[in-house]
Design brief:
The chain is of the alpha/beta class and 342 residues long. It has 2 domains: 170 residues, 3-Layer(aba) Sandwich (D-Maltodextrin-Binding Protein, domain 2); 156 residues, Periplasmic binding protein-like II (D-Maltodextrin-Binding Protein, domain 2), CATH 3.40.190. 35% of the residues lie in helices and 19% in strands. The protein contains 12 helices and 12 strands. Strands 1, 2, 3, 4, 6, 7, 8, 9 and 12 form a 9-stranded mixed beta sheet that branches. The longest helix has 15 residues. It is elongated, with a radius of gyration of 20 Å.
Amino acid sequence: MTDFNIKRRDFLYGLAGLSGSIIASQLPFESASAQAIRINGAGASFPAPLYQRWFVEYNKINKNTQVNYQSVGSGAGIKQFIGNTVDFGASDVAMKDDEIAKVSRGALLLPVTAGSVVLAFNNKDVTTVKLTRQQLADIFLGKITNWNQIGSPKSKPIKVIYRSDGSGTTGVFTKHLAAISSEWKSKVGEGTTVQWPKGIGAKGNEGITAQIQQTDGAIGYIEYGFAKKNGLKTAQLQNKAGKFVPPSPQNSAVSLSQIQLPANLRGFAPDPTGDRSYPIVSFSWILAYKKYPDAKKAQALKQVLNWAVSKSGGQKFSSDLGYIPLPDNVIKKVTTAINSIS
């Protein structure tokens, strides 16, 4: 490999954690054969840094399989999956029954990773923010408008940042808000898109992260890994037990352990119990077809996914990037579902 290609590879690899637009198949695979199998996926930005890492690492051990993943948001990922324009989709909210019914080849919802949604903020006057359940809802309802209402020593307008695109992160966040606030549930509700009472829209976890960084007084919701990688301050949230809990993989894992996955692998914990539970966590699903017309591509995808959910494979990269490694019982269920692909 030339010095130029080494530098180009390292540059792209460094960007992969920040932007879902970087794809594994853009890297200079010297020994990939002309018969390489290319797998195309699109969807959630929430797990994009982890997926990018997975597909780069997997290609190192299997040069003939190249995976291209586009971080376009859960809503667009589901749409492309239903439209058969990708080999797999990805979403932070499990597809609904009526959406699954539109997939002629059958759909498998595979929870391959998990993470937390955090409230990241930009205010040089504040180091620690503790939000009660009421305060959290009231900020996004537009009822709390100034930082001095939530503990800041100085007056400064709160600038709410929200997702402008169809987003699984939005789905997870609004599901929690609906669980803790009857007013939010009746006035706004939950979903991948909602009518926000106030704020500034940005596209993707990448977009919200950048908007918060650039906006003094901003507060918005993003996946924990994006906040961690970019050094953003995050709020402690009051959980169902009344405790203020900072976001961390350890606290989020306590919450995740409460989710009992049924046979269809769709499980949620919109308001987990327990003193240590961080209140906003979710699995993130890869959407795979039950049947593929290309047997070689089906086999290659199964191998990629089995590696991704294994402890010695993809899961070992989770913690460093701010995600929650899958529990053993979940790995077992997901592996069985992956192996049913034909």
